[in-house]
Amino acid sequence: MLEQFLVTQQNSVSMEVLIWTVGSVLLVVSVALIFWQLRIGKGLKIELAHLEKAKKHNVEYEFVLKAMRLCTWHIDAKERTITYDNDYRERNDCFSPPPGTPLSEVIGIMADGDKKRIEESMNEICEGLKDEYHEISQVKTARGDQYYWTDTYATVSARDTEGKPQTIVGTSMRIDERKEIEAALVEARNKAEESDHLKTAFIANMSHEIRTPLNAIIGFTSVLPDVQGDDERKELINLIQENNRKLLRIIDDVMTISRIESGKESVVMSAFELNDTLTAILSGYSSEVQQGVTMNSQFALPSLTVTTDMARLTDILNHLLANAVKFTVQGSITIGYDAPADKRLRIWIQDTGKGIAPEHQKQVFERFFKVDEYIPGAGLGLSICRTLAYSIGGEVGVESTLGEGSKFWLELPI
Q: What residues contact 303, with CB distance under 8 A and at least 6 apart?
C-alpha cells in the first residue's frame, strides 16, 4: 500500500512539474507573441505614416504643377526620346507628343531661329557635358498655324555605371503673357526714349523757327524809323507783317498740338455747306500766292451739306493750302472734292509745285520732318493734319510726282 501511495505521489508531482513547465513555456510564448505583435503594429504604423506622407507629397506636388501650369517630362538620354508625364498647361493647343517621341521631332517643330540652339543644348546635357538645361523658345501649336513661347528647365536625374546621363527630367511652362508684358515694356521704354528725343528736337526746332521770323521783325522794325521813301517803308512793313504771320502760325501749331495731346478739346459736330467753306478758305490765301500762280476750285456737286467738326476740317485744309502756297512758285493751286462714294468724301488740294520723292511721301506726316530744310517751317503742319483727321474719323494722304506737283487729300465719313 505504501509503495502504491508513493508511486501515486510521485506521479502527481511529475504531473504538476509538467503542468508548470508547459504553463511557463506557454507564458513565455504568449509574452513573446505580444511583443512581436506590438512590434508589427509599430512597424505598420510607421509604414502607414510614410504612405500618408507620400500621398500628401503627391497631392502637394500635383497642386504645385497645376498652380504653375507646368508640363513635366523625362528624356531617355541613350535613346534620345522624350515622354510627357504630366501636362497642366491651360491651353489645349500646346504641343504634347506621344510617349517615346524622338527628340529630333520635338526640335523640328520649333521656330527656325531656335532649332540650332536648342539642339546644341540638348546634346550637351544628354552627353553629360552639363548637368542642367534652361532655354526659352518658340514652339508650333498643335494646329501648326502659329507659335507660342515656352520656358524649359531640365536636369540629370539618373546616371549609368560610367557616370553618363541615363534619364533627364524637365518641366516646360507656357509664357506668352510674360512675353507680351516684356514686349509692352520694351515698347513703353522705346516710346519714352522717343518722347525724350522728340522733346529735344521740338525745343531745337522751335528755338530756330521762332528766332528766324522774330529776328526779321526786330531787324526791320529797328531800321523802319530811318527809312525816308514811302515805297521802301511799305516794303519793310510788308516784310514785318509776313514774318508776323509766320511767327503766329508757328505759335498756333504749337498750341494746336498742346490742345490735341491734352485731350481737352472735344469734337463738335455741325452741318454746313461745304462749297461755301472751301471757297472762303481758298480766298483767304489769294493774297499769299506768288505772282503768276492761280487759285482754282473744282467741286463735284453744285451744293453739298456735310456734318463734321467744322473747326478741325478748316484747320486741316488751312495747313494743306498753306503748304501748297509755300512750295508752288508757278502754275496753279486747286481745291476741290470728288463725288461721295461708300459714305466717304474725299477733299483734295492739288498744286504744281516741286513735288515729293516717293521715299519721303510717308514721312511728310511725321513730326518735324522736312523734305527741304531751307524752306521755313517747323515741320508740324502735316503731322497736325493727320492727328486732326484721325480725331474726326478721317485720314490724310498724298499723291505726288517729283518735279510735277502734289495732291494732298483728306477723306472723311459722311
A: 273, 275
- Model confidence, pTM: 0.50
Helix (H) or strand (E) holding 314: helix 310-327
CB 239 within 8 A of CB 216: yes
| Grid cell of 247 as nine digits | 511767327
Contact by Cβ (8 Å): 256, 295: no
Kindly provide the residue ranges of all beta strands, DSSP E only, lying in 77-224, ordered along the sequence: 81-87, 101-102, 132-140, 147-159, 165-174
* SS3 state of residue 395: strand
Cβ atoms within 10 Å of 41's Cβ, excluding its own: 10
- Strand-pair partners of 411: 346, 395
> Does some domain include residue 15?
no
Spell out the residues 6+ positions from residue 412 whose beta carbon is closer than 8 angstroms to its own: 306, 308, 313, 344, 345, 346, 347, 389, 392, 393, 394
**Per-residue cell: 134:** 534652361
The span from the CA of 287 to the CA of 300, in Å, is 26
CA distance 287 to 90: 69
The domain containing residue 276 runs over which residues? 266-414
pLDDT tens-digit readout, 229-265 = 888 888 888 888 888 887 887 787 777 777 766 666 6
Exposed e or buried b for every residue in 186-206, given b needs 16+ CB within 10 A? eeeeeeeeeeeeeeeebeebb
> What is the DSSP code (8-state) at residue 338?
P
Which residue, of 234, 265, 296, is where some domain finishes? 265
CA distance 314 to 392: 12
The per-residue pLDDT for 38 is 62
Dump pLDDT digits (tens) for 130-166: 989 899 988 888 777 788 888 889 999 888 888 899 9
Residues paired with residue 398 on neighbouring β-strands, in sequence order: 408
Interstrand relation of 405-413 and 395-401 (parallel, antiparallel or unpaired)? antiparallel
Length of the chain as a residue count: 414
CB atoms within 10 A of CB 119: 15
Strand order through the sheet with 395-401 = 293-299, 331-337, 344-351, 405-413, 395-401
In angstroms, rounded to a whole number, what is the distance separating the alpha carbons of residues 361 and 283?
A: 28
CB-CB contact of 364 with 379 (8 Å):
no
Structural domain count of the chain: 3
Query: Are residues 113 and 250 part of one domain?
Result: no
